[in-house]
Every structure is written in structure tokens, then in C-alpha cells.
Specification:
By secondary structure, the chain is of the alpha/beta class. The protein has a domain of 95 residues: 3-Layer(aba) Sandwich (Rossmann fold). Helix content is 29%, strand content 22%. The strands form three sheets. It has a seven-stranded mixed beta sheet with strand order 6-5-4-7-8-11-10, with helices on both faces. A five-stranded parallel beta sheet has the order 14-13-12-15-16. The chain has a four-stranded antiparallel beta sheet with strand order 1-2-3-9, with helices on one face. Helix 10 links the parallel strand 15 and strand 16. The protein binds zinc ion. The site of zinc ion has 8 residues, from loops.
């Protein structure tokens, strides 16, 4: 195990408390393997979450970035869900309403497969540059001929040739261990300009702490934020936070920032005392939550019932591997055709399409993200299935 970090990567404080520990979890939970054996043998490492009492940042203090290879075949795109697509379109429309980007340069850091940047280009007329080591050009139809370019690499300000007018970064900060340095790199990329808009979307950890939502904790996510700790990171880097709220069923932090002109903090940033209390209660809370779900699955399995999990992404992998649930879960379902027929790291479950439920009807379906309950309920009903349907 790498030596545990004794200093907060966000604010350099040494007032840290351990709040969660897992001995061995798959080092990538979005990867899919070609055989069950390969999936079960996938490398595992420990996770030790620490809470910073001074800025509220939560991080994996034994995270080893060299274990995670984002250039390999990761499958993080949620763009197969109608709900997620609508959300991305709404966000692009919000950006368009706040900033006039026509003919200006947008840099998206961690653009994934590029769908959001394409949406921004279409809605705003911006010139798009996406940076991501996992970008796969052939997966983005219609990019040809648009003012959109991609650099297949990790973000490095030295390779950003033109100063951006707008920086977007969605679902990336949680993968960055040295978050303080990352902010300094963004400051370098905007080269001292003040008239640059910055848009971040990052998972919110407050509800994870509050609900003991262990399925939202996995290896690639080394950095966890609340509204307040997210904003404090930006303020420390010389930026003002201009808009801050929770979206997507309160799962994601949406934050806009600009290089500082001395604006006062927003009321939403003032959460440190409340988050300290949640962090203190978390060890007990998460133990209760894990015990509840282990019992839920094992009881049904013991009664001869078929339990299926809907969601073959990181949440599903964490749900299974954090509790070592194997044969107790009969099926893992995902609508993403790129995941189907392949195996989840850790437990080695095969991922199948929803159609497989018709052949082997489940008694219980556990939905890994409550926001998809309606969509999944409708899919099941359309197949004539009516299992017990619950969300984590
Ligand atoms: Zn800190």
C-alpha cells in the first residue's frame, strides 16, 4: 500500500480524519473484461478515505494513479440514457444563456467521448477543443466538418496552444488526486486573463456521507467534494464562484467560476460545520448501510429468488465488490450495448441487455441510480415483467 497522505491535497492542512476503509477494490470499475476469470483476477488496491477538517475535502489517502489507465478501454459514457442526454442538453443550454461563446474558444478538460462538447458547439457556435486520453474518434458521428477538435492526452497547459475563453470540466475533478495542482494548471492555461468563464460538474459527496452510499465510492474517484469544499478549492486558486447548485436529483455539483474580482462567497458555500458532523457520523452510517444491503440480497437469494442489478457501471461494481456479493446476484443489466457480453471487474458478473430478463425473469431488480427508476420501470413493464423494483 502506498504511504497514506498526511496532508490535504486541496488546502495543505494536516487536520485529517480517516472515515472509511476498504482493503481491496478493483482499481478500475468502468473497465470491462472479456472473460469472467480475467475479471475476477483484476488488480485490487485498498482505499482509505480521509476528511479534511479545515476545508471539508474528502480523498483516498492511499490512491495510486499509476494503477488507473484512462487511455485503455474505459466505458464511462452515460450517454445511452435518455435522462442523462436530456440533462446534458439542458446544461449546454444553461451555458449558452450565461455566456456568449459564438466564435470563441471552449476547452473541455476530460471530454470523454466528446458528446457534451459537440452539444455545446451546436448550441453556442463555440470553437471546441476537447482533451481526454480516452477519446475515441470513431465513436462520435457528425463531428466532421464542425469546429471541434480533440487531443487524445491528459490535460497539460503546455499543450493548449490557444488561450480558451471558456473552460468546461465535467466528471473529471473526482479523478484527480492533486486537486490543488490541477487548479494551478487551469490558471496557467488561461494565462492571467480575467474574462474567462469556468464550468465544472462534479459528483456531490454530501449525500453519500449522509446516506452511507458506499456504492458511490470507488477506486477511480479519489477526490470527493461538497458544494462548499468545491468552491473553497476554486477560491484558493484565485477564482470567484459565480453560480453553485446541485442538479440531477441532487447528485451533481454544478459550479461556475471566474478569475477573482473580489466577489463575496455565495451562501451555498457555507457548509463546513454541517459536513464536519456528517463526516464524524459516516463510519457508523456506512456500516449500517452495507449491513442493510448485504442482508437484503442474501435474504432473497436464500429464499431462492433471482436478484438482478440494473447498472453495470462503477456503482454496480462498487455495490458488488464492497460487499463481496457473487452468486447472490444472478444478473447484471445495462442498456449500453458496449458493455453487454462483457464482465465486471472484481466479481466477474456478465453484463447483459434488458432482453435477457425475459428469458430469466428476476424477482427483484436493484437499480443502481434512483434517477433511472421511471425509465427502467417502463422498460420492464414493456417486457411484461413486474419484479420487486428498488433503488439504492
Ligand atoms: Zn483541506
Amino acid at each position: 500500500m502506498p504511504e497514506s497522505l498526511q496532508t490535504c491535497p486541496a488546502c495543505s492542512s494536516k487536520h485529517l480524519d480517516e472515515i472509511y476503509r476498504l482493503d481491496a477494490i478493483p482499481v478500475q470499475s468502468c473497465i470491462l473484461l472479456d472473460s469472467a476469470a480475467e475479471a475476477r483476477d483484476f488488480p485490487r488496491r485498498p482505499l482509505v478515505l480521509k476528511f479534511c477538517d479545515d476545508c471539508g475535502f474528502v480523498f483516498n489517502s492511499v490512491f495510486d494513479l499509476s494503477q488507473v489507465d484512462y487511455a485503455s478501454t474505459t466505458e464511462e459514457s452515460q450517454h445511452f440514457s435518455g435522462t442523462f442526454n436530456r440533462f446534458a442538453k439542458q446544461l449546454a443550454a444553461e451555458v449558452a444563456s450565461l455566456y456568449d461563446l459564438k466564435g470563441k474558444r471552449t476547452l473541455e478538460i476530460g471530454c470523454g467521448k466528446g458528446e457534451f462538447l459537440q452539444e455545446l458547439v451546436q448550441q453556442t457556435g463555440t470553437l471546441g477543443l476537447g482533451v481526454d486520453p480516452g477519446f475515441i474518434p470513431e465513436r462520435l458521428p457528425g463531428a466532421d466538418g464542425q469546429d471541434i477538435h480533440f487531443q487524445r492526452e491528459y490535460f497539460d497547459p503546455a499543450t493548449i496552444a490557444e488561450t480558451p475563453d471558456f473552460v468546461a470540466c465535467r466528471h473529471t475533478l473526482e479523478h484527480i488526486p492533486a486537486v490543488g495542482q490541477f487548479m494551478a494548471d487551469i490558471a496557467t492555461a488561461i494565462r492571467g486573463r480575467k474574462d474567462v468563464g469556468i464550468f465544472f460538474e462534479t459528483p456531490d459527496v454530501r449525500r453519500v456521507l449522509d446516506e452511507g452510499a458506499f456504492w458511490d465510492i470507488y477506486y477511480e474517484h479519489c477526490s470527493y467534494f461538497t458544494l462548499g469544499s468545491h468552491a473553497r478549492l476554486f477560491r484558493q486558486a484565485g477564482m470567484d464562484v459565480t453560480k453553485l447548485y446541485l442538479a440531477y436529483d441532487d447528485q451533481y455539483i454544478i459550479q461556475y467560476a471566474e478569475p477573482s474580482t473580489g466577489r463575496p462567497p455565495l451562501p451555498e458555500e457555507d457548509d463546513l460545520d454541517a459536513v464536519r458532523a456528517l463526516a464524524k457520523a459516516f463510519p457508523e452510517r456506512v456500516a449500517e448501510s452495507r449491513a442493510y444491503w448485504i442482508d437484503f440480497v442474501r435474504t432473497r437469494h436464500g429464499e431462492g429468488k433471482r436478484v438482478a442489478i440494473w447498472g453495470g457501471g462503477s456503482k454496480g461494481v462498487s455495490f458488488l465488490t464492497s460487499n463481496d456479493l457473487r452468486t447472490e446476484v444472478a444478473q447484471v443489466i445495462d442498456i449500453n450495448p458496449f458493455k453487454q457480453g462483457r464482465y465486471l471487474p472484481g466479481t466477474g458478473h456478465l453484463v447483459s441487455g434488458p432482453g435477457s430478463l425475459k428469458e430469466a425473469p428476476p424477482d427483484t431488480v436493484i437499480v443502481m441510480n434512483p434517477i433511472y427508476m421511471k425509465e427502467i420501470g417502463a422498460d420492464l413493464a414493456a417486457m411484461g415483467l413486474n419484479p420487486e423494483l428498488v433503488a439504492v
